[in-house]
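Lecture notes, unit on protein representations.

Consider one protein chain, 444 amino acids long.
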Amino acid sequence: MTTVHDPSVAALADDLSVWPASTAEPHPGELSVGGVPLAELADRFGTPVYVLDEAEVRDRCRTYLHAFPDTEVLYAAKAFLCRAMVHWIEEEGLGLDVCSAGELELAVTTGFPPERMVLHGNAKSPRDLETALRLGVGRIVIDSPSEIARLAAAVGPGGHQKVMVRVVPGVSAGAHEKIRTGTDDQKFGLSIADGHAQHAIARILDQPQLELTGLHCHLGSQITTVKPYLAAVRRVVGLMARLHEQHGLVLPELDLGGGHGIAYRPGEPALDLTELSRRVRAELHDACAAAGLPVPRLTIEPGRAIAGPAGIALYHVLAVKRTGTRTFVAVDGGMSDNPRPALYGVRYAPRLIGRRTTIDRTPVTVVGRHCEAGDTLATDVELPADVRPGDLLAVPVAGAYHLSMASTYNLVGRPPITAVRDGHARLLVRRESLDDIRSRDVGL
């Protein structure tokens, strides 16, 4: 291996640390991903456009399978789903975690085995449950007491359905209060502390058509330390021990959810998967040994950590406005294709691409085109001082919760998704057109 001594090369490597591994700079100011120049993608597909590195997605799937042996790894579809993504996940040997009939049907009609899928959600509709039962989903995660009777009735006296119970371990974790789901004061799951989880489990045991296979918990999103997961293991195993004492119940599965944090900007922390696997499995083994229980099979549900770093969003600059001490760089997208900065205050690291410049960088705020003061994509980031209309900006780590949360605000169609691999690009999801939007408007 050759050691890099050129400071400019080392700086570039650090600057690209949150980009897909295939990212290269074939010429100064130009970037390629998957062997395809990003400027070429912008010309071919227009902007805004999402770019997904297929090899990066597949590599991250394999990393999880390697880091978590003897563990069921389910890709969390809510992060991003399309038919190609379903195909990649299935080929790499992961299962699928879905939370709606739409996600479920898209996966099954693409060829994904329903028995390798788990359906969850805090308020499943009758259609969600009917679809899950009709298609034969592997497990349904019960999230509220009312679901027990509804699901048992839908299954019928001669039917059978494997279920889990989502419990709340009382562990606070996650980068923002809006994405913390392991504490009692939020809408998901059944609390261990107040006894609601135990009561729901007792009711499930009275339903012969429902087979309780294990417990499920999900602490939140963008968690970058291992400690909260260890606390959750201890508390959930404690509940398992009480269930064994009260009902003679031995549960074979424990689903610890996902929420694995990634870096959105160079230098930010990310969850260490090797450490997470080693310490969680050790904690689970020790806790079960102390309780006199067999070790359940572990399940995890990464979503963002697989899709997020594989994606890039491309925008063209429409306007540059200097007001007082601030410089605003407005692009042809915004909160309709990435609402996360407005929702959670997430910060990104956009980069000028497509042309070489030696001008010093200056702090700017990258804003969107929508009629909201909060339509901001990146606050106080450094771009070359000569940034101008027509320039191309690339935003890394855009593969998760962008298209899946996109809207048609101001009747702006949602961007397309393209995939790159081995020097080739293809369209996965086409751009939403004005005709698409008009076709739904049937009231005149």
